[in-house]
Amino acid sequence: MQFPQALESVLQTLERMRAESAHRPCASRRALEALNRVAPSHSAESISESRTSVMEQHSPPVAPERSEGGSCPKNLGGPSRTGIDSAAPSKHQNVEKLGAVNERVCVCVKCPNLARSRTQTVFGVGNPDADLMFVGEAPGADEDAQGEPFVGRAGQLLTKIVRAMGFAREDVYIANILKCRPDTPGSSYGNRPPTPREMQTCRPYLIEQIDIIRPKVIVALGAVAVEGLLGTRAPMRELRGRWDSFNGTPLMVTYHPAYLLRNQSPSEKRKVWEDMMLVLERLEKPISEKQRNYFL
Ligand code: SF4
User: Fold this and answer.
1) Vertex 11, ends 8 and 17: CA angle to 5°?
2) Contact between residue 268 and residue 138 where contact means Cβ atoms under 8 Å apart
3) 202 close to ligand 1 (CB < 6 Angstrom)
4) Highest mean pLDDT (candidates 40-44, 76-80, 90-94, 106-110)
5) Model confidence over 179-197: pLDDT tens digits?
6) Quick check: 257 and 219 in contact, CB under 8 A?
């Protein structure tokens, strides 16, 4: 397909989204500028006119640049990521509800230092109607760059755990206590744990996510996630492997995958897997012999 036809097709899709969707399309200023630069001269005028007609009513959703709060990634779960179809109204409703929360999150500046330093907010990803929800602590550098939680090495290990449980990553929902990467002043690399104040400030967004998704089981990954969810501070050896409750939803505490990357001890990995088998039992999922003997 030639560029003008391709662009025309994009514009038609945007027009259709504007007409049909409660959540209107938005594009970053940078993307629009890039589009302007590559538009061929012979069609630039008509393209520009069409583009203006699509975007002119949407100036508020135009994602601000990094220093103004970052862009608004759409990794919420939804038809394109989860295979949800029109025959699943509750999933569609949850996509809409999560989208509404995400629209507030992506322009949130309640933690001014994090809003200034983030590349983008990292809302959550997966099935908006999931039975199983994983909660970690905060985005790291990889997540900040990609706008999706658990995409670095720890994320790859989490995906491996999820698959070993018999799920696809898209079957579960994954989120963090914090939606912005904790800043590391003076250093462009490395991560730091969120402060109690940051967790307290961001926690209401997570509660909204949980209230919308209504998972049957929540898994808290690591001590920071436990502190963010339950307000409990204790060594992980005392917390993990037992059931707690978050507003009536069963909550299993286990080690963060990053801990398993630091500590390659088979016994520690086995503990996480035993925690996951408890989760499978709680979800009333059959556990095969192979799974019972599995080691991460
Ligand atoms: S961490 Fe949460 S509360 Fe703080 S600025 Fe980011 S989205 Fe807002």
Assistant:
1) 145
2) no
3) yes
4) 106-110
5) 999 998 776 667 899 999 9
6) no
Atom of ligand 1 nearest to the CA of 108: 8
Give the integer Cα–Cα distance in Å for 277 and 183: 35
**Ligand 1 mutation target, pool 68, 72, 101, 105, most atoms within 8 A of CB:** 105
Name the one residue in this structure whose structure tokens are 């006119």.
49
Q: Are 170 and 82 in contact (CB under 8 A)?
A: yes
SS3 278: helix
Residue 217 phi, psi dihedral angles, 5° rounding = -140, 140
- Per the CB < 8 A criterion, the answer to whether 55 and 15 are in contact is no
User: What is this structure's pTM?
Assistant: 0.74
Q: Are 133 and 173 contacting, i.e. CB atoms less than 8 angstroms apart?
A: yes
Other Cβ atoms less than 10 A from the Cβ of 271: the count is 19
Residue nearest (by alpha carbon) to ligand 1 atom 3: 202
Give yes or no for residue 293 having a pLDDT over 50.
Answer: yes
pLDDT score for 79: 42
- Max Cα separation, the chain? 68
Strands in 88-160 per DSSP E: 125-126, 132-136
Q: Is the CB of 121 under 6 A from ligand 1?
A: yes
CA 152 / ligand 1 centre spacing (Å):
21
Count of beta carbons in the 10 Å neighbourhood of residue 101: 20
Over residues 212-249, the pLDDT tens digits come to: 999 999 999 999 999 999 999 999 999 999 999 999 99
Order of all β-strands in the sheet with 132-136: 125-126, 173-176, 132-136, 217-221, 249-254, 243-246
How many angstroms does the Cα of residue 49 sit away from the middle of ligand 1? 37
* Average pLDDT value for the chain: 81
- Residue 51 · residue 87 · CB < 8 Å: no
- Asked if pLDDT for residue 56 goes beyond 50, the answer is no
Tokens coding 60:
């508020």
